[in-house]
Design brief:
The protein is globular, with a radius of gyration of 24 Å. It is built from six helices and six strands; from the N terminus they run H-E-H-E-E-H-H-E-H-E-E-H. The N and C termini lie far apart (59 Å). It is α/β, with parallel strands linked by helices. A hairpin with a 2-residue loop joins strand 2 (110-117) and strand 3. The longest helix has 21 residues, at 3-23. The chain has helices spanning 3-23, 90-104, 132-141, 150-167, 191-200, 232-244, and strands spanning 67-74, 110-117, 120-128, 173-180, 204-209, 225-228.
Length: 255
């Protein structure tokens, strides 16, 4: 075989090897929320895409880009105490601040309410827009009784935001706001539920905490947005900051 012919054969063999390697390389997942999809500003990618797929029929929201504020209010017995809440009980301070907060939520944003008290963890008001007066009435009806099932509360609240995310095809903003003193019942450590939420979703977790220490999973520097409710004015400011906080993720990239 002459040298020119041998050279051509070698080129063809090398080319075939390269083509085979490229042709069998897994394609990068560039779908919204895929594992190779980066959030704005280089934040973590979400694996799997959010919200998770479902076989159930979904009624798509009319406003795909709506902001969502889902409030979880601690109605446990410890909220009757005055520690870290000025001259009134933690519950009284929380009620006044939440009423003021609801009046500031944009009219086109969705607002919802979950309460845990002596009756367990229950959604008192589903996410919606034309519900501010009802929100105020329900908040004022909350009594500080019962236990603190934080894990169940976080899990159920997150499930509601996932449901809303499916309706909005993953677009919009999602804020989970937990007002609590953070003293969970035995077996109700919320850490696994919180870490799941933070790792797989664009939901921004806000904690308005009454004397919650830095070793609590609701107060994770750089991961959760923690505001100390050491007095009524700090509590109100913490809730006001919820509306001003930029989302941690560009949620239009996830669907």
């Amino acid at each position: 075989m002459t040298k020119p012919v041998l050279l051509v054969v070698l080129i063809l063999i090398v080319g075939a090897i390269i083509f085979s390697a490229v042709g069998h390389r897994p394609a990068a997942d560039t779908s919204a929320g895929g594992k190779d999809q980066k959030a704005a500003g280089g934040e973590k990618a979400l694996t799997p895409p959010w919200p998770p797929a479902t076989d159930q029929a979904i009624a798509v929201s009319k406003d795909l880009f709506a902001k969502n504020y889902y409030i979880v209010l601690d109605g446990s017995g410890s909220m009757k105490d005055q520690a870290c809440s000025g001259n009134q009980s933690k519950m009284e301070a929380a009620k006044a601040a939440l009423v003021a907060f609801s009046a500031s939520v944009p009219a086109d944003a969705n607002l919802g309410l979950q309460v845990f008290d002596t009756r367990g963890v229950n959604e008192w008001l589903p996410l919606g827009t034309d519900n501010r007066q009802q929100f105020t009435r329900l908040v004022n009806d909350v009594q500080a009784t019962g236990n603190t099932p934080l894990r169940d509360s976080v899990s159920r609240a997150y499930a509601k935001l996932v449901e809303q995310g499916r309706k909005q095809l993953g677009y919009g903003e999602y804020h989970l706001v937990i007002v609590t003193d953070g003293d969970a019942n035995p077996g109700q450590d919320p850490t696994p539920a919180i870490n799941r939420l933070l790792e797989e979703s664009p939901v921004v977790l806000h904690t308005i905490g009454f004397c919650i220490g830095g070793n609590h999973s609701l107060n994770q520097a750089g991961r959760t947005v923690y505001k100390a409710a050491d007095n009524p004015s700090a509590l109100r400011q913490g809730l006001a900051d919820v509306l001003a906080e930029a989302p941690q993720f560009s949620t239009v990239k996830f669907k």
